Each structure stands twice: as structure tokens, then as C-alpha cells.
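Case study 2.
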Amino acid sequence: MEEHFDLEEFLPYALNRAAEAASRGFAQIYKARYGMLRTEWRVLFHLGRYGDLTARDICDRADLHKTKVSRAVASLEVRRFLTRRTARTDRRQEVLSLTPAGKAAYGDLAKEARAYDRALSAQFTREDLTILRASLRRLRQTAGPEAP
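Prediction:
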């Protein structure tokens, strides 16, 4: 007889559900204030945190598909949150930069993200939170297609 498979205990499924639940509240903030989708705020945050980047840089750093990043960049450009310029070293690439409006949105949302993170973190003891963050880092570093 086949062993019962409990989907709720399947780690990838449980992590995905937890991530969705944790992200929902913050998504309401960036959507209500700026009309952004998830990929758009992630692009905005990478540019705000790391400065000028190419779309490929953002794909690599954020582990996002290039099509999603391309759509997010186009949307943020229409809203005048970012600009593009041809890269000096490779004319096939564009360097993305936040505009003053993009920097203001980043500053506002970064403040909200810190507050949201504090509120989420408050439900854990300091020790539990340390273990949780270390465990998530370990999974990001070691899990993947070659994982057992």
C-alpha cells in the first residue's frame, strides 16, 4: 500500500503558502499606493537598494524571469519611476535608473517594508526568528534542481 502523502507537510508547498500569506499584506500597500504588481515593486526595490542595474542584473539578483522583468520595467517607465539608457560597455544592454519619483516611491515603500517586517517578526521569539532566517538562507543556498 502506498504511503499517504501530506501536501501540507511537503516543504516546497508549505514554504510557498507561508510566503504567499506573508506577502499578501505588504502587496496591499504597494498596490494601493502605487498600483504596482509584485514584480514591479521587486524591480523598484533592487534599483533603490543597489543603484543602476541592467534588467539582466535584476533577473539574476531577484531570480525573476526576463519576460516578467521586461514587463515590470516597461510599466515603471510609463509611470516615470525609472529611465533607461544604453550601456556604454555593451550597446545591446540598457542601464535602468530610478527617477526622483521612483526614489520617492522606494523610500516610502522601504519604510513601510521595515514596519511590515517588524510586525511579522513580532510573532516570533528572537531565537526563533534567528533560526527561521538562517534556515531560509540555507534553503536558498542549497536547494535547487540538484537537491535530493
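Helices lie at 11-34, 38-50, 55-62, 66-78, 100-121, 126-142.
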